[in-house]
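Input record, target 12 of the design panel.
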């Protein structure tokens, strides 16, 4: 069942196979949860939103309103993004990318078998990059997170954030320019 594409898993689930939805959830949960967490920066809130996202997905599937054939992940990411925006509107707080004792984005990313020194250097570099991304304006930070942490295309980012592709590309360009400025001003060394 793990070899089935998302569309086939959805059809199997709608046909009564709950295991199909479990496979679909396991396939995409890390990416969706990570993107939620990077926006809300609170483990409990991220877990709540993550559960709400999949409740909404199940509800939409059962009502027969799912029509994004072959684009399940993008659809799920849009639901997650909208719920995060709703959360921000409720709390009126800004997004910040940083790790906590309970969760670190880089724990979810697979890495090779590095020795202890290489791993320490990587962790320090990742930490510096997260700190640098935190210093960006909100719109630029959002594009960086969606592009590099959620692995979304600029077309997907544009659709998700309701801007043109050129605007998404422009925000990324300015983010990179600003990151370079910050690195130079603060004399940050990335290895």
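The sequence produced for target 12 reads:
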């Amino acid at each position: 069942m793990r070899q089935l594409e998302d569309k086939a898993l959805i059809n199997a689930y709608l046909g009564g196979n709950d295991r199909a939805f479990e496979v679909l959830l396991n396939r995409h949960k890390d990416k969706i949860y990570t993107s939620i967490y990077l926006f809300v920066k609170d483990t409990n809130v991220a877990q709540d939103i993550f559960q709400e996202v999949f409740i909404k997905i199940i509800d939409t599937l059962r009502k027969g309103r799912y029509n994004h054939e072959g684009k399940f992940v993008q659809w799920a990411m849009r639901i997650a993004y909208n719920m995060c925006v709703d959360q921000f509107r409720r709390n009126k707080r800004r997004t910040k990318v940083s790790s906590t004792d309970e969760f670190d984005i880089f724990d979810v990313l697979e890495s090779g078998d590095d020795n202890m020194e290489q791993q320490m250097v990587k962790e320090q570099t990742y930490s510096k990059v997260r700190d640098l991304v935190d210093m960006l304006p909100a719109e630029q930070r959002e594009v960086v997170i969606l592009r590099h942490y959620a692995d979304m295309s600029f077309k997907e980012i544009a659709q998700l954030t309701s801007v043109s592709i050129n605007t998404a590309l422009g925000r990324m360009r300015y983010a990179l320019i600003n990151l370079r400025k910050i690195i130079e001003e603060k004399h940050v060394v990335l290895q």
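The radius of gyration is 18 Å.
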